[in-house]
TrEMBL record:
SUPFAM superfamilies: FMN-binding split barrel
Family label: Belongs to the flavoredoxin family.
Record domain Flavin reductase like: where: 11-144
Organism name: Pseudoprevotella muciniphila
Name this protein carries in UniProt: Flavin reductase family protein
Molecular functions per Gene Ontology: FMN binding; oxidoreductase activity, acting on the CH-NH group of donors, NAD or NADP as acceptor
Cofactor: FMN
Keywords for the protein's UniProt record, in alphabetical order: Flavoprotein
Top-level taxonomic group: Bacteria
Pfam family, one: Flavin_Reduct
Gene3D superfamilies: Electron Transport, Fmn-binding Protein, Chain A
Keyword Chaperone (UniProt): no
């Protein structure tokens, strides 16, 4: 086996689009990859210093959407362009924006599924960023992306993940097994 130094290579990494309002109510979005489930009702995201962290000083509410193959180009764009320096950043994405129904944050209608969130804790906060722990207040899913059982269908969404090894995006593939079930054959 080849050995590598410590690197941020947990796979797969989600491509999370974080939506916030600035102090004037203007929507902003950023792309973040270092995040995941914290527990049953909370998420954690590692954030550097961004317009998003400035916005979260003013308002604890935000949204988290999952980037897809259809949203990939604009999702990458909001990760490489700062809202601090590009006032027309959101206009360039072409995303339709409305206020989320349960939190004071923007909802980008182009994404199939969005988490409505509220800050619970900022860990190791410094001028360079922090770890954000947030409560999931609600989950919204476009009905076009529901499975026959009425729950979100990840395959229909064409969600992408970030490959930190090669700096690429990869679309999630097909279902290959049933969790908490297939392993029972070894009992």
């Amino acid at each position: 086996m080849k050995s590598f130094a410590s690197k941020p290579w947990i796979l797969p990494q989600p491509v999370l689009i974080i939506g916030t309002y600035d102090k004037n109510g203007k929507p902003n979005a950023m792309n973040a990859a270092w995040g995941g489930q914290w527990d049953m009702h909370e998420i954690v995201i590692s954030l550097g210093s961004h317009a998003t962290t400035d916005n979260l000083k003013e308002n604890d509410d935000f949204t988290v959407a999952f980037a897809t193959t259809e949203t990939m180009v604009a999702s990458d764009y909001v990760g490489i362009v700062s809202g601090r320096n590009t006032p027309d950043k959101m206009e360039k994405t072409g995303w339709n924006v409305e206020k989320a129904p349960n939190v004071n944050a923007p909802l980008f209608k182009v994404f199939p599924m969005t988490l409505e969130c509220r800050v619970k804790q900022k860990i190791d906060e410094s001028e360079t960023g922090y770890y954000l722990v947030a409560e999931i207040v609600n989950i919204l899913c476009d009905e076009n992306y529901l499975a026959e059982d009425g729950n979100p269908d990840v395959e229909k969404m064409k969600i992408i993940t970030y490959d930190p090894v090669h700096h690429t995006y990869i679309q999630l593939g097909k279902t290959v097994g049933k969790a908490f079930s297939d392993g029972k054959t070894l009992k």
